[in-house]
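Need tokens for this chain, all 311 residues.
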Amino acid sequence: MQLRQLEYLVALARERHFARAAAACHVSQPSLSAAIRRLEQELKVPLVRRGRRYEGLTPEGEVVLAWAHRMLAEGDALRQELSALGDGPEGTLRLGVVPTALPAASLLTTPFCERHPRARVSVESLSSADIAQGLADFALDAAMTYLDDAFPRAVRRLPLYEERYVLLTPVDGPLGEAGTATWAQAAGVPLCLLNSRMRNRRIIDGCFAADGAAAAPAIESDSVAGLYAHLPGGRWSSVISHAWLHTFGVPEGMRVVPLDGPARGPRVGLVTGPDDPPSVLAAALLTEARQAGVRESLDVLLRRHLGGQGG
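Here are the structure tokens for all 311 residues:
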């Protein structure tokens, strides 16, 4: 059995198509198919259900796939540990991030890269469910996500900050001069929000409901960047997480208004996978996260904007 054969099986399970899997592995389709058949012969079990096209893995194939993820992750960890004995760790840290935490990700990735110049970071925007699966499959080394989600039992969790929700609204709008606003008042202004498939939107919908209101946004987006693109111009308001201010700030002509209600939302944290001990790169990111002071940095940023320096 060769690691390359396991890489082919992982690619096939991910792509669900022989040609796409071969392209992802930079080999011809016949080469990939032949390698997987050799693996089946060596293990003496069928791994792939074949028809006119790929139809999925057999039960035996699912077992081998789980081991393949683990063995490939162990191989990466070995290479990282050996590199750390030389000029510092090298390799690629695979970081999954829920979309609403992406604006704060640089608070970790930038100091990580500064301390470990031979390492690289691959950041992927993923749903919380995809992150949990990626950690379980060893497809991710670490993730920034909501800590109250379900994860494999062996993951490590490090709290980073609690989401705090504020209203971003035009200075000449109905709430532009308000010292604070209720969620019901915020529901009454023209809104641009994330769509209902996003975890953040479901959280803030719960906050609206707790104040006896329901948001009816005229514009919805599946990304924070798409939402912010509609805010300049003085027409729309939005309920945002304070972490978004780190990357996007306050558009000209708008201000931040505190919302009455829960002072803090759900916790966002760094989660590393079930491998024990963690990979060298994952352990290095945990070290940076403990020193980064993410919560404090975001709170200082929010206070600055609430003090009238935004816009």
